[in-house]
Amino acid sequence: MRTLIVSDLHLGSNSRADLLRRPEIREALFAQLADAERLVLLGDVLELRHGPLREAMASARPFFEELGAALGDRELVISAGNHDHALVEPWLEGRGGDPDPASLGPEQIFDAADASPPLVTIASWVGSRGRGPVRVAYPGLWVRPDVYAMHGHYLDCHLTIPTLERLSVGVMSRVLRRPASQFDRVEDYEAMGAPVFAWRDAVARYAHTGAALNGMATVSAWQALGGGRSERDPAARAPGPAARLAARARRRALVLGFPLAVAALNRAGIGPLKSEISASELRRAGLAAMGEVAVRIGLGDAYVVFGHTHRPGPLDGDDPAEWRGPGGARLVNCGSWTYASIFLRETAAQSPYWPGGCVFVGEDGPPQVRRLLQDRTREQLRPVRPGT
Q1: What pLDDT does residue 238 have?
Q2: Residues 37, 162: Cα–Cα separation, whole Å
Q3: Disulfide engineering: 119 pairs with which of 68, 115, 243, 352, CB 3.0-4.6 Å?
Q4: Neighbour tally for 72: CB within 10 Å
Q5: pLDDT tens-place string over residues 270-284
Q6: What is the enclosing helix (H) or strand (E) of 288?
């Protein structure tokens, strides 16, 4: 079955970075459905860490209603990631009440009605149109006998970059005395990640979250450490010379203290972590971690399509060896549909993290990475905030 796979829509982002809230951007994605018999939304479809569910759902509704019309009678499968894990949490909780539940495998397929109330609502917006119920896959699905797709959030358990997500699951692993080096099944990853996702979801349920939980603190720290340039650079935006000097001093202190902090985390058993956070190291570390997940949940040498890191690939110029897991898995990333200024330069050719990626899986042959917004300028993609 010809399948189009899209990941990391983050519909409902407070920053309005979710580009698919805009009709002209949706048209670029929906045009790709002409080649496909099935669409897979591969997790982080909703942004549930920025605020209450009702706000994300309201932002997402136009997308799903238009998607239903564009899909016609084609199949729709939705998976969950770390930012919208709540979409499958009721189903996972229900399994916990079964007297003798089957072990979680790499693929569980079930109806939206069995997953959660928000997915029931989303299914109603899409409409059946002769297609049957919207299906849910978790943590992923076999698209073809040799192609497996999952969001990829399990890779945080093996990541060497000290992101907030990595530190959170590292602490949980340390507390429960279940090191990631011993994981060999899906339940191991859920046991580490689900509690972390749940408390963040609980905070966002009642009010908008701050920078520490919505990701902006991580972006600011990464930029201060030299990882990238951002429109939100506090040193550049600080009012007055004295404020700019103070911002630069804070940045210098962070740069000097960061390796010491990473070393302390490693001594505390949260690692292994590295203090290098360049864009190239982000790519390498993410691929190495995803390759490790593929080995531990038994994916063999399949093509493994994932999202999560927002970096599509492999792209022209990438080292093919980086995209091959230690067990032979052939890694393919969908990219994202979010505008992240810190990763973007003026053109798509200069920006591996340029939004608008997807993966097309045909009846045979390697999955194809497609980048649908390369003809847009950065200015055309820049989010438009109300009142501007």
Answers
A1: 54
A2: 39
A3: 115
A4: 10
A5: 989 998 878 888 999
A6: helix 279-296
> pLDDT-based confidence at 232, cuts 50/70/90?
very low
Contact present, 332 and 303 (Cβ < 8 Å): yes
Give the phi and the psi of residue 379 in degrees, each rounded to 5.
Answer: -65, -35
Dihedral sign, CA of 187, 322, 310, 79? negative
HSE-CB at 168 with a 13 A cutoff on CA atoms is: 22
Q: Hey, what are 230's tokens?
A: 């951002």
**Positive or negative CA dihedral for 173, 177, 179, 182?**
negative
Residues 6+ apart with CB under 8 A from 359: 4, 5, 149, 305, 332, 333, 334, 367, 368, 369, 370
Domain 3-157+275-381: assigned CATH number? 3.60.21
- For the record, the structure tokens of 182 come out as 């011993």
Name beta bridge partners: 39: 4, 76
Q: What's the confidence (pLDDT) of residue 218?
A: 57
pLDDT tens digits, one per residue of 359-385: 999 999 999 999 999 999 999 999 987
Domain residue spans of the chain: 3-157+275-381
For tokens 């970059």, the residue is: 161
Please report which confidence band the pLDDT of residue 230 belongs to, taking 50, 70 and 90 as the band edges. very low
Residue 221 neighbours by CB distance under 10 Å: 18
Residue with tokens 């309201």: 58
Per-residue pLDDT reduced to its tens digit, 203-218: 888 878 765 555 555 5
Per-residue pLDDT band for 95 (boundaries 50, 70, 90) equals confident
Give CB contacts under 8 A, 24+ apart, made by 108-111. 108/137, 108/138, 108/139, 109/77, 109/135, 109/136, 109/137, 109/141, 110/135, 110/136, 111/135, 111/136
